[in-house]
Amino acid sequence: FLPAIRSELTNRETRRAAENVLFEWGADAMEMLLTSLEDRELDAEVRRQLPRAIAQFPAYLVVRRLAANLNDETDGMVRYRTIAQLDHLQRRDGPLGIRKELREVTRDLLVQVLELADWRATLQRFAREQPEEVTWTHQILERLISDKEDNATDLIVRVLVLLYPGEEMEPIARGLRSKDESLRSSALELLEHLLPADLREPILAILADRSPLVRLQAAEPWYSPRTLSHSELLRLLIEGRSFMLRSLATRLAGEMRLTELRECLEHPEDPSPDYDLVVARALESLNADELASSSL
Fold it and tell me: Based on CB atoms within 10 Å of each CB, which residue in 38, 83, 168, 233 is the most buried?
């Protein structure tokens, strides 16, 4: 019965009623929801509705499981909504008492931002060195990575609000999101006095400057830049978990006739009908290029 009610969370018309039924059901429903959130094989649309349903329950019963799940979460929407609901719980029930867990989440997000900055630096370096090879797909891929970097940076600010509850962090967060440079500078100065020494330099660098090189210079000891080649980065993305990054990297490999990536295209880590179509088109480009070469 509970899984059937859980599935109704994806229906906008029945979502509120389903949340109410699950809350009234009590401890068994709460445990089912928390376990479902931890199940990476569960339908993504269902998992994305779980943080709000879980946040109906008292904070002291759910916050540690919510925070622990963030460290291994691969779905960006689930991560965002979980942090939003932790903020809701803190405003509703007071300080969450999970500073250790939130510091771990901050560290994980910091590494994620730095990794994305590393990828963006690789794409920018390729564009400088081989501008004639830059295609629309390359530009869209860089834009998507940049957007993911910005989203992870914003999540760091949201977690800092959780780490430093009360009015002290709220104006700093507003300043950091402002387009007014004077407000941003003031917010960064105030934040510098709040942050622990081990997190101060990389977080301030990330929030102060969008340049990937500036961010990576302040990365140690959190992250060691990998200085990947363009082809190595595409292989990494093709073998990764993000459908959009995999698809764009696959399309780019086909456009650039990167035959060294044929094997990972022919044996994808996570095949699906939609991705298989992208792979088929990329392989067509590789095959056509090899056929043309052999006929010369």
Answer: 83
Distance separating alpha carbons of residues 172 and 174, to the nearest angstrom: 5
Round to whole Å and give the CA distance between 240 and 226: 16
Place of tokens 């906008």: 12
d(CA 81, CA 51) in angstroms, rounded, equals 6
pTM: 0.86
Classify 265 as helix, strand or coil: helix
Long-range pairs for 197-204: beta carbons < 8 A, 24 or more residues apart: 199/103, 199/106, 199/107, 199/110, 202/110, 202/114, 203/106, 203/110, 203/156, 203/160
- HSE toward the beta carbon, residue 70, CA cutoff 13 A: 30
Integer Cα distance of 103 and 288 in angstroms:
51
The helix/strand/coil state of 213 is: helix
Tell me the chain's radius of gyration from C-alpha atoms.
Answer: 22
C-alpha to C-alpha distances, 116 to 132, 153, 191, 245, nearest whole angstrom: 24, 11, 23, 12
Residue with tokens 């490999």: 253
Q: Measured between alpha carbons, how far is 214 from 190 in angstroms, rounded to an integer?
A: 21
- 3-class DSSP assignment, residue 32: helix
Q: Which two tokens stand for residue 131?
A: 């501008």
